[in-house]
């Protein structure tokens, strides 16, 4: 069974950091592009970042550029999203998704999400 599982969310104060993890089971991530999305209540889903499969090129949304870094550890079959200088408006459920063509296009598999809350 192909599955993505996010972890690492939680409550953090403004200015704090979190590292989210997206672990795959049932398939290997190295041939997939992996993206992180987020959705806050009452707002549309937003693609935060994506890393392609082959050369590992990364995309970052303007809303988080300079504050997030996406990386992959193929040995652990896991992709990470390091988030720094968090703001209350970053509060959302964060999801990872996998694109089997490796190019950050259409996403075939989705995780269940992890809640990130930024509040004092």
Short recap of the structure:
With 120 residues, the protein is mainly beta.
Main sheet characteristics: 7 strands, mixed
Average pLDDT over all residues: 95
Name the poorly predicted regions. Answer: none
Shape: globular
Count of helical regions: 0
Question: Ends: how far apart?
Answer: 40 Å
Commentary on this structure:
By secondary structure, the chain is mostly beta strands. The protein has no helices and eleven strands. It has strands at residues 3-7, 10-12, 18-25, 33-39, 46-51, 58-60, 68-73, 78-83, 92-99, 109-110, 114-118. The strands form two sheets. Strands 2, 4, 5, 6, 9, 10 and 11 form a seven-stranded mixed sheet that branches. Strand 5 and strand 6 (58-60) form a beta hairpin. The radius of gyration is 13 Å and the shape is globular. The model has no long low-confidence stretch (mean pLDDT 95).
Write the topology of this structure.
Elements: E1 3-7, E2 10-12, E3 18-25, E4 33-39, E5 46-51, E6 58-60, E7 68-73, E8 78-83, E9 92-99, E10 109-110, E11 114-118
Parallel strand pairs: 2-11
Antiparallel strand pairs: 1-3, 3-8, 4-5, 4-9, 5-6, 7-8, 9-10, 9-11
What labels describe this entry?
single chain, 120 residues, mainly beta, seven-stranded mixed sheet, four-stranded antiparallel sheet, 11 strands
């Amino acid at each position: 069974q192909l599955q993505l599982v996010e972890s690492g969310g939680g409550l953090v104060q403004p200015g704090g950091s979190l590292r989210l993890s997206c672990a795959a089971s049932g398939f290997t991530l190295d041939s997939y592009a992996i993206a992180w999305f987020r959705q806050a209540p009452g707002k549309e889903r937003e693609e935060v970042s994506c890393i392609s499969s082959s050369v590992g090129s990364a995309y970052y949304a303007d809303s988080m550029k300079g504050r997030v870094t996406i990386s992959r550890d193929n040995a652990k079959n896991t992709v990470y999203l390091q988030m720094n200088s968090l703001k209350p408006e970053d509060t959302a459920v964060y999801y990872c998704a996998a694109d089997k063509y490796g190019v950050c296009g259409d996403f075939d598999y989705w995780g269940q999400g992890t809640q990130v809350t930024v509040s004092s």
